[in-house]
Fold:
Amino acid sequence: MKKWTFAVSVLGLTMGTALAGTTLANSETLNIYNWSDYIAEDTIEKFTKATGIEVNYDVYDSNEVLEAKMLAGSSGYDLVVPTSDFLMRQAAAGAYQPLDKSKLPNLKNMDPKLMATAAAYDEGNKNAVIYMWGTTGIGVNNAKVKERLGADFALDSWNLIFDEAVISKLADCGVSILDAPTEMIPAAMNYLGLDPRSTNKDDLAKGAALLEKIRPHVRYFHSSQYINDLANGDTCVSVGWSGDIVQAQTRATEAENGVDIAYIIPKEGALQWFDMMAIPVDAPNPDAAHKFINFVMDAQITADITNYVAYANANTASMALVDDAIKNDTGIFPTQETLDKLWASKVYGSKTDRISTRLWTKVKTGH
Ligand code: SPD
Structure:
């Protein structure tokens, strides 16, 4: 994987920069809002070359941030990438427009089984197409963690995070967790033997209480900074997303800094999620957004993205073009045995969402 500095800085765009209120809408401009560290270095350039459409590309690292913009409306974006559970809630609120499938001939490349799974959140795949998918697990710095826990300690469990006796031994080398309540509270619930998809408020409170207990040993809550910190050896354990941890691994290898990172899908199970390309209902240029979705579904373009960001895709035609090292990495494309242990995102209604948000504030701030 090559280092990619992409046009985010060239264009002067930074994470969370809103386009609302600007006048970027014209027929030759496409405004994309995607997750950070989530596209190949040449995807946008190739798209512009193929179509003549200029792209403004902003990034975020939180579904909640994207959701606030989608529900407020007038974001100025033509193409966004919510995770399936968030997509469903936002679509119910009227935030997206149905796709015009006559403009998406490359849909033929998509894996019908995975698209059927995504249809549980988007009936008939009406509003969205899978961009990439992955799991939420743990990245570890092998040497630092073994130094503290012993060479024989099995690094295959959420006990690295949720057992206070274990995480307290790792605190000095830096533990980070995702700033993502809908992922962290269910992970804690699962560790406690509760259903991670439960929306029972007592179950959610128990999960949050466990997070509060381990909170003193957590250096920070963040959902993108951990890639570089793990790669540089500034942290030693991060709850993170599969491809991000593999990117940390790759960055360390390229830097030849001696940091050896592993991605763990814990034996107790983990969240499997799907990030979906969708077009906001008030997108200034939905036609260009369709062109981009179709372009991404090209086998070579999807393979390039997967090869660069180390996330699994749902594009059957691309698989012959995916590097063997990525294809055979079971942290990226899990075995069936592991897949059977994953749980799917639960769509929270507004009441559960309020409970979860309140609990999360308490986990992070202590009140
Ligand atoms: N750096 C790219 C991260 C993509 C993460 N997708 C979010 C999944 C949320 N469940």
Summary: Residues 1-26 have pLDDT under 50 and may be disordered. Strands lie at 29-35, 54-60, 79-80, 128-141, 175-177, 220-221, 237-241, 261-264, 271-278, 343-344. Residues 90 and 359 are 22 Å apart (CA to CA). The radius of gyration is 20 Å.
